[in-house]
Specification:
Elements: H1 3-6, H2 13-18, H3 21-41, H4 49-58, H5 64-74, H6 78-87, H7 91-94, H8 103-139, E1 144-149, E2 152-158, H9 159-178, H10 199-211, H11 225-251, E3 259-260, H12 280-301, H13 313-341, E4 343-344, H14 346-353, H15 362-373, H16 375-392, H17 396-402, H18 412-418, H19 428-440
Antiparallel strand pairs: 1-2, 3-4
């Protein structure tokens, strides 16, 4: 697969560099050496054994290609890894390596170790988004724009409140992701620490502390709730990022032009049309998160695993879990840049408010007319005037004043107030203040 051309551009390049074959081998070794140290600390290994193993194995050059080739016969990376590690140890140490562990203990814990810095990076990117969004909200809390429902002009809102919804979605997902635990895995062959009896749980808890992971209630070989929680939390962030990118992309359309992606040399260029400035960051975000959604589906479908060890379900989790995190990190890198450099065009927003001649204000006009003409007539006349304004390209207020059934019925200042979008924003400004308070209150 030409991954460098088709897959990697959607991912964080930093994360890719930190989640390669060598990193997986290092994470598996970290688990094994920590296990030996815990067992030695509890008197289960002779004194000094764990240190000797560390000195030898940290200096050993593991053969990643050979480990990869060995997966075909064993079914996972831990089996050929353990073989290589043992072959690098003298005979008197071999039996102490991987003692009481099973391959799933190694792989699951290694994945948690790889994901821990990725979650920290995701959190940092989400905080960048939050800070930039807050600044946009403050700047544009009174910037009036069209609110759209079913892709059509509806009523006026402010750009500040639109940004607030983007920010709240991302922050809700950030807080959910921050609450997800990355647990250690250690249970042995069938998850009951066979051969160790009660101290097995003590080893598990001490191993979690040594590795900086959480301690589960029990080993979770076929209890995949930790993976389910992590996968769905990542997907929640993906959904919030996709909402941002979708809205921005729609607002950048040539005929709308209310915002634009940050300008950069060559960014958004077309292969054939020199005039184009495509919303490429939005495309990269949406392309990445659509893949995250697909990976999440794999994780959800693998949640129920048989008996004491999954047969294919566990194996199916590995790539989607890591790829999902790397894709999401790539998407949030783009989202942070998008928030921080978003070009906002209030003049285009004012222009689009006037596209219907002001007919967008038919609802408040109808309310103005109800006490005079009754509900049904008020609704009919406000709609007729809006259609006249649209067809003739005249201001809505002018169409109302010219309506034959309204002659002498309304004061011009009352019409002016009812047709002013800036005076019909509901709780928009207060919503921005409320959103900012919530975003800052952790």
């Amino acid at each position: 697969m030409p991954a460098a051309l088709l897959q990697h551009p959607f991912m964080s390049q930093t994360a890719l560099a930190e989640c390669n074959t060598d990193a997986m081998i290092a994470a598996m070794l970290t688990f094994e050496l920590a296990l030996a140290e815990v067992q030695e600390a509890h008197g289960a290994l002779p004194e000094g054994v764990s240190g000797e193993m560390r000195d030898l194995l940290e200096a050993h050059a593991f053969d990643g290609q050979a480990i990869a080739a060995g997966i075909a016969s064993g079914g996972n990376a831990a089996i050929p890894f353990v073989k290589q590690a043992r072959s690098a140890l003298p005979d008197e140490l071999k039996r102490y390596f991987h003692q009481g562990a099973t391959s799933q203990d190694v792989v699951d814990t290694a994945l948690m170790l790889l994901l821990e810095p990725r979650l920290a990076s995701l959190d940092a990117l989400l905080l960048r988004c939050r800070a930039a969004a807050t600044a946009l909200m403050v700047t544009h809390d009174e910037t009036v724009m069209v609110g759209r429902t079913l892709m059509q002009q509806a009523l006026p809102i402010t750009f500040g409140v639109k940004v607030a919804h983007w920010a709240i979605g991302l922050e809700q997902a950030r807080r959910r992701l921050a609450g997800v635990a990355l647990p250690v895995q250690f249970g042995g062959a069938v998850g009951v620490h066979s051969g160790w009896d009660d101290p097995g749980l003590d080893f598990m808890d001490a191993l979690a502390e040594r590795l900086g992971l959480s301690a589960p209630v029990l080993p979770w070989h076929t209890d995949r709730q930790p993976i389910h929680a992590l996968g769905t939390a990542l997907d929640a962030v993906a959904g919030a990022a996709e909402k941002l990118a979708l809205d921005v992309a729609l607002l950048t359309q040539t005929e709308v032009g209310e915002v634009a992606e940050p300008a950069a040399p060559g960014m958004g260029e077309s292969s054939s049309m020199p005039h184009k400035r495509n919303p490429v960051r939005c495309a990269l975000i949406r392309g990445a998160v659509r893949q995250v959604h697909g990976h999440t589906t794999v994780l959800l479908n693998a949640a129920a695993q048989p008996l004491e060890r999954g047969l294919g379900e566990w194996h199916a989790e590995w790539a989607p879990l890591l790829d999902g995190a790397l894709l999401l990190e790539g998407a949030l890198e783009q989202a942070a840049v998008l928030f921080e450099g978003l070009e906002v065009h209030p003049e285009a927003m004012r222009r689009n408010l006037a596209v219907t001649g002001g007919g967008i204000m038919a609802e408040p006009v109808s309310k103005l007319l109800v006490p005079i003409l009754g509900q049904d007539v008020a609704k009919r006349i406000s709609a007729e005037a809006a259609e006249t304004a649209r067809r003739q390209g005249i201001p809505y207020a002018e169409a109302l004043e010219a309506h034959p059934e309204l002659q002498g019925q309304l004061a011009p200042e009352a019409v002016a107030r009812a047709t002013d979008p800036a005076l019909y924003l509901g709780s928009s400004k207060r919503q921005v203040r409320r959103a900012i308070t919530w975003l800052q209150d952790e």
